[in-house]
Design brief:
The protein has about 280 residues and is of the alpha/beta class. It is built from ten helices and ten strands. Strands 2, 3, 4, 5, 6, 8, 9 and 10 form an eight-stranded mixed β-sheet that branches. The chain has a two-stranded parallel sheet with strand order 1-7. Helix 1 crosses helix 2 and helix 3 runs parallel beside helix 4. The longest helix has 21 residues. The N and C termini lie far apart (about 50 Å).
Length: about 280
């Protein structure tokens, strides 16, 4: 399979195909495979199966992260009245994306998606549907360049009004801990009071069963792209410095505002915080 191929039923925008590499497993596609999607290749399935064999709970993590997104967006739109969302690290579109949930609750909601994965760009048109009263936009940008993200997002979002920043499973691709914290700080510094940060991040902490992340991530970094890292509770909590964590605080994302019969605890922290 050559780099110019895209999954069946898709067509790559101009300039995209050269960036697609279907010979190496890619996080967006492997994640899609783990949650039961079809936008992946044989190499993604092979690496996905290998990682799942080493760390069987990975599929639970993938699903729990997705369910966290749904609960967080519904909570922010319904209970907190948020009408603007900046979703950084969008991933491949599935069922109930951020704009679909938010605009179902409030059709006037404005959503900006951010990702730099070429496979995600192929599917961006799925993310660009919108209700008549709302707006949905997509930015092809890298989380390592928050200033560019903010500059371009400001064309769609009003930074004088509260924004919910969604950073689900994205800062784990910023390998330098200080750089990751700086990105979170710089993005939230540009947001007005009353804005929110919703974030998930994998952990190696034993109390959440995260020890298995270490060998699995080592295999991943040797066989797939982009490289990834897990972090401890303290490093992840640092993303929320200057913000007020909402109940129940920093917990396994599968247990954040979940039903009592929620799925197994997964080694992926999740939290939502407000900027005072």
């Amino acid at each position: 399979m050559s780099d110019s191929h895209t999954p069946a039923g898709t067509s790559a925008p101009a300039g995209t195909s050269a960036r697609l590499n279907t010979g190496v497993a890619h996080n967006a596609r492997v994640w899609n495979y783990w949650i039961g999607g079809k936008d992946n290749y044989e190499v993604d399935q092979q690496v996905g199966e290998q990682v799942a064999g080493m760390f069987p709970i990975i599929r639970d993590i993938a699903r729990a992260d997705r369910w966290f997104l749904g609960r967080a967006v519904r909570f922010l739109a319904e209970e907190r009245g948020v009408r603007q969302f900046l979703d950084i690290g969008t991933g491949l579109p599935t069922v109930d994306n951020t704009h679909e949930i938010a605009q179902r609750i409030a059709p006037e909601s404005r959503i900006v998606y951010v990702d730099n994965d070429p496979i995600v760009l192929v599917h961006a048109r799925t993310l660009l549907t919108s209700t008549a009263g709302g707006v949905t936009d997509y930015i092809d940008a890298d989380v390592h360049d928050p200033d560019a993200i903010l500059e371009r997002a400001a064309k769609t979002l009003d930074f004088d009004k509260p924004v919910a920043v969604m950073m689900l499973g994205i800062l784990n691709f910023v390998l330098d801990a200080e750089k990751a914290q700086d990105i979170a700080r710089r993005v939230m510094a540009a947001m007005p009071a009353g804005s929110y940060l919703a974030l998930t991040h994998p952990t190696f902490d034993a109390d959440l069963g995260g020890e298995g992340q270490i060998p699995a991530m080592k295999f991943w970094n040797e066989n797939a792209t982009p490289p990834i890292t897990a972090r401890g509770r303290a490093d992840i909590a640092a993303y929320f410095e200057g913000l007020e964590l909402l109940e129940p605080g920093l917990v396994s994302c599968s247990r954040w505002r979940a039903e009592p019969d929620s799925p197994v605890v997964v080694p992926q922290f999740g939290a939502v915080a407000v900027k005072p």
